Amino acid sequence: MSTDAVLADLRAALETERDTLSQQLRDLGFADGETGLEYDSNFADSSQVTAERGEAETIATKLRETLDDVEHALAKFDDGTYGRCESCGDAIPEARLEAKPAARHCINCASKHR
Q: How far is CA 60 from CA 15, 49, 92, 108, in A?
């Protein structure tokens, strides 16, 4: 598996990504318990408001999914399983983790899950 310095860098990258994603969700009004940005109910073009709200909800859903993956990876650091494929148990190559620190699967298993 990777060296301690590489692991520390990967964990720091995941923590930074978690903070960035959380801030983006807050900016969209989708932090814990929030339902999104408030729109003026008197706005003349309600279809535009509906479209913008739908777009914001779609973005927030994707951000939440990514945040879940990042938090899952950080939990794996804590339980000592980070860097292991969740399907086959083999070590995930360092290059893959550097490219995608929240990777759950080695490249072979990831290609099977598509």
A: 19, 16, 29, 30
* Number of Cβ within a 10 Å radius of residue 70: 22
Kindly indicate the confidence band of residue 52, based on its pLDDT and cuts at 50, 70 and 90: confident
Say if residue 69's pLDDT is above 60.
yes
**CA angle 61-11-105, nearest 5°?**
65
Q: What is the pTM of this model?
A: 0.80
Q: Which of 30, 97, 35, 105 is nearest to 64 (CA)?
A: 30
Q: How many residues does the chain have?
A: 114
Query: What's CA 25's distance to the chain center, in Å?
Result: 11
Radius of gyration, CA atoms only, the chain: 18
Written as six digits, the tokens of 28 are 């969209």
Structure confidence by residue, pLDDT tens digits, 10-47: 999 999 999 999 999 998 888 776 555 555 555 556 67
